[in-house]
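Recap slide: Cytosine-specific methyltransferase, sequence and predicted structure.
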Amino acid sequence: MLNEKTVLENIDGQLFEINIIEPENPKQASYSHYLHNHKNGVSQFFKKDALNFVKEILSENSDNKISTKAAEEALQYLIFNNKNSVPFPAPEKPNFKFIDLFAGIGGFRLALQNLGGKCVFTSEWDRYSKKTYRANFGEIPFGDITKPQTKSYIPDNFDVLCAGFPCQAFSIAGRRGGFEDTRGTLFFDVAEIIKKKQPKAIFLENVKGLRNHDKGKTLATILNVLREDLGYYVPEPQIINAKEFGVPQNRERIFIVGFHKDTKITDFEYPEPTNKDAVLEDILEEKEVSVKYYLSTTYIDTLRNHKARHESKGNGFGYEIIPNDGTANAVVCGGMGRERNLVYDDRLTNFKPITNISGEVNREGIRKMTPREWARLQGFPDNFKIVVSDAQAYKQFGNSVAVPAIQATAEKIIEKLQNI
């Protein structure tokens, strides 16, 4: 069980600590959301719990009963001292509001903030992702979006709903494939929020395989719900490849965009590739990296034998070493995500292992990419904080969206909304 602590604030010379890694604590999330939204008209959705949270923290550090008035004064003090010291603060004068569902570590948020947007609600259930999200954006995401309590904190009158929702199988055999048929899936929760909040635009992202999932029935159900049940204009979804938007990673994802009928928008064009010729060398570490990223001789032999067995059967599975002038394979969770993106790096000077390995550190210069290199492959800037273990960092960046592709598409959405 993690016991990560952070200082709430210095009030009258006292430091108050809170546990920020609680998967389901809406008061924590309300507190951080209130600090970032007290000026933009959505604070009403967070103030009650924010006050109660501050009251609880003060009470834990005082022998006296804390009044609501004292909690309000403390909260105002905290607002005054919230200097947006995080790496990626919201714009001072935002052009639009959005919410960030299944937020992960904030790829959607980073992209839309770059375009002048203000995130007014975010949810993410994974505690390690929450830690990374808070370190970079200063907010603690709300938890499980399938819970009615979590949905109750979503404010009204935001412009864009963003969601990189996980794909699940729908049971639609013999039925129409409408709104009710998505119950039990995470898409149903997204659709339910769209139905209640009626955002001007929606921007959904998923794996490329969604197009052919269950022989195309899953995507057909999603589009039917968005178009017929919810009344949104939804152009044909498009497969977007990150490598066409300035990062050297072959990462194809399906993007689904939609506009509320009241916007009168009935046409949309996805962004054209930027044709930036990025190569792997552009994202590699400039200095020597730790020996822990270099493979052992035993591990390399295992990988080579595994690949040879598959090649003998006519399969293309196995490890891959990406040349410096090449393009990386998609970064994904699991060992093969790293093994299919090995690199040559002959700068290692200390071959003494610092982790338990079988065999010796290889002398061929074969290593895994570092988490920072994976971050760059996904378009995250170097001041994006990595505050978790390597294992969690690989998982988080593997699960994330490619920021440049998201931003290019979001820019097209915002252009449409600004012209209505």
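Residues 5-80 form one domain.
The chain has a mean pLDDT of 87.
(End of recap.)
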